Amino acid sequence: MRRSTPRRRIFVGDIQGCSAELERLLEVLRFDPARDELHPVGDLVNRGPDSLGVLRLLRRLDAGGVLGNHDRHLLRVSAGLARPKRSDTLEAVLGAPDRAALLAWLRARPLVRAWDDILLVHAGLSPAWSDPVVTLSTLDPLADDERVAFATEVRHCDPTGRRPRSDWPPPPPPYAPWFRQYRAASRDPRTVVWGHWARQGLVVEAGLRGLDTGCVWGGQLSAWIAEEDRLVQVAAARRYASA
Question: How many angstroms separate the CA atoms of 23 and 46, rounded?
Answer without folding.
Answer: 17
